[in-house]
Specification:
Chain lengths: 272, 311
């Protein structure tokens, strides 16, 4: 500790203010969800849970179900492709290995709107009708890198000599995978899957260009906000979305503690 | 060979000698002798999917920026020309959109760096273990929570009858009318991307060995000199790494200016979006190359400053 007492107090105060800056809006959305009025002014005059019931409409249910479906399928694809790529990159040395990391990271490194319009014009040119599956393709492109980075980080921390030992003891490829690789890998896959789902569930920009007339939950509330309609319902959904993302992230954090993969920025960069 | 097979029985759930087991061993042996086959099997599906879907779309988009839309039939005309880029170059309106986008992205980056640096320093060097873990999760959760929700709540806060003006009135200050303006866009971007800056800055500060600071003190440097000549240069790559995200994410966004901006808050993303909805894909593609080029230059600079090691 080289810092003087005064500078430590100043740093602590500043940090408390920044954390408050990050959290006050999230607390406010929780309060607004219970706002009895349909006018969104402050202070909130009276509280009620009536909008929770009102938010459960056919339209909301349909878009929630679409978001869940797309998230699950995109996560599934990302788990298969992302872990296959991670295994290939972790286990083999070959020319162009760095380029693979770079390629997989592109959908997140490039501005989202570029990915969105590129896929959109490809679908339009190829006469592919926009459907649930086009959204899945869009989401899978950026979910793959999340799984890839989680799995790669875990593989780099596990010793390759374990595999050799398993083979020396006569295990075949499947047995080595089942009894040696899988126990090390499973939590990384679960964490990567949870984060990929969280990312897909929340995505707006790429989705706008691949959804056509369909509404995922974020697109539905984006539409409500733009038109200034149904704002009490938006408050409730916003609150629910915050609560719903907290759960997978806290879970993933427990599973991947200390590996740093949850540092979303760092997790998206090649060669980490 | 027989001995090692027997040894493996403990691992196998099936009785030995079954054809599946023999086949699996043959396959394992094949992969062992030809590691390339395995690498190909693992890498081909993800790479083919990426090349065929994603990279091909990107390439097609770039190519289409050199084509035009026939104004009468709205059909894409495959005639090579630079008209879209000429329009971009010559129309002043697009210059101001591009400059606004880049300027606000830079302002967001500076604000985030200023907010994040002391917090990162506190986490890395002042806080105890428990408060560090608490702050870490407190930064992590907003990072992963819904982007759209976080933009929306600021609309409510900044509205004329929102929390901000209520608070200002309580402390006796005049009301601020910054909802639906470039100020609102700047503030909201600063808010939503702040965690992307905090984490790499914290990471860089955490990696500075205590002994460096002790050495600096032993050599007679005061607190300020140590900070300026030891801490700051070592932490800079972390700041630059964070700035890649704050800058790039602001540059490619269109939702925040759409929801929280005013009449003159259009970003490159908004113009691109509008052109896509009116089927002017070639022009949209041409304008989308601007943030791509800016990011390309930025990444080259960042690499020279050592940001990639700090990520």
């Amino acid at each position: 500790m080289t810092e003087s007492r005064a500078s430590r107090i100043a740093l602590g105060t500043w940090s408390a203010l920044v954390v408050a800056f990050l959290w006050i809006p999230l607390v406010l959305i929780a309060l607004y969800a219970f706002n009895a009025s349909n006018v969104q002014s402050w202070p909130i005059a009276s509280f009620s849970t009536r909008w929770f019931h009102a938010a459960w409409t056919e339209e909301v249910r349909a878009s929630l179900w679409l978001s869940v479906r797309v998230g699950l399928i995109a996560t599934g694809i990302a788990l298969v492709l992302g872990s296959a790529a991670a295994f290939g990159v972790a286990r083999f040395r070959f020319f162009g290995r760095e380029a693979i990391s770079f390629l997989l990271v592109l959908p997140i490194a490039l501005p989202g709107i570029v990915t969105g319009i590129a896929l959109n014009s490809a679908f339009v040119t190829g006469n592919v009708e926009l459907s649930q599956w086009t959204i899945v393709v869009g989401h899978a492109t950026f979910c793959v890198v999340i799984v890839y980075n989680n799995v790669l980080a875990r593989l780099r921390r596990s010793s390759p000599s374990l595999l050799e030992a398993s083979q020396d003891l006569g295990a075949d490829g499947w047995q080595t995978f089942r009894f040696v690789v899988w126990p090390v890998l499973s939590t990384a896959l679960v964490a990567g899957g949870l984060l990929a789902f969280a990312l897909s569930f929340d995505e707006v920009i790429v989705t706008t260009f691949t959804a056509g007339a369909q509404n995922t939950l974020p697109l539905l509330i984006l539409g409500y906000i733009r038109l200034g309609q149904q704002l009490p319902v938006v408050n409730v959904i916003a609150f629910a979305m915050i609560v719903l993302t907290v759960v997978p992230v806290l879970l993933a954090q427990r599973l991947m503690r200390d590996t740093g993969v949850l540092r979303r920025g760092a997790a998206n960069v090649p060669g980490v | 060979m027989a001995a090692s097979l027997d040894a493996a029985q403990g691992l196998s759930r099936r009785p030995p000698g079954r054809p599946t087991r023999a086949a699996r061993l043959r396959l394992s042996g094949l992969f062992w002798r030809h590691p390339w086959a395995k690498a190909l099997l693992l890498l081909a599906p993800p790479l083919l999917a990426f090349l065929l879907v994603y990279v091909a779309s990107l390439a097609a988009l770039f190519v289409s920026s050199f084509w035009t839309i026939d104004p009468f039939t709205s059909e894409l005309r495959h005639v090579w020309n630079l008209d879209n880029y000429r329009t971009l170059w010559e129309a002043g309106a697009y210059h101001s959109v591009a400059l606004r986008t880049i300027g606000i992205a830079a302002a967001v980056t500076l604000a985030d760096a200023a907010l994040a640096f002391p917090l990162g320093y506190f986490m890395a060097r002042v806080a105890g273990r428990r408060s560090r873990a608490f702050v870490f999760v407190a930064v992590l959760l907003p990072l992963w929570s819904s982007y759209l929700v976080r933009v929306y709540i600021w609309r409510l806060i900044l509205a004329d009858d929102g929390v901000l003006n209520w608070t200002l009135r309580k402390v006796g200050l005049p009301a601020a009318h910054i909802g639906y303006s470039n100020w609102a866009v700047w503030l909201i971007f600063t808010y939503v991307w702040l965690p992307f800056m905090i984490l790499p800055v914290y990471g860089a500060l955490e990696r500075i060995p205590e002994s460096f600071l002790e050495a600096s003190r032993d050599l007679g440097a005061g607190a300020w000199t140590t900070f300026r000549r030891v801490v700051l240069p070592l932490a800079l790559p972390g700041v630059v790494a964070g700035s890649i995200f704050t800058f790039s994410l602001t540059l490619g966004d269109y939702v925040t200016p759409l929801l929280a901006g005013g009449a003159s808050s259009q970003f490159i993303g908004n113009v691109v979006y509008d052109n896509i909805t009116t089927q002017q894909t070639p022009f949209a593609a041409a304008f989308a190359t601007v943030p791509l080029a800016v990011m390309g230059v930025y990444l080259l600079l960042a690499r020279r400053l050592g940001a990639f090691e700090a990520l």
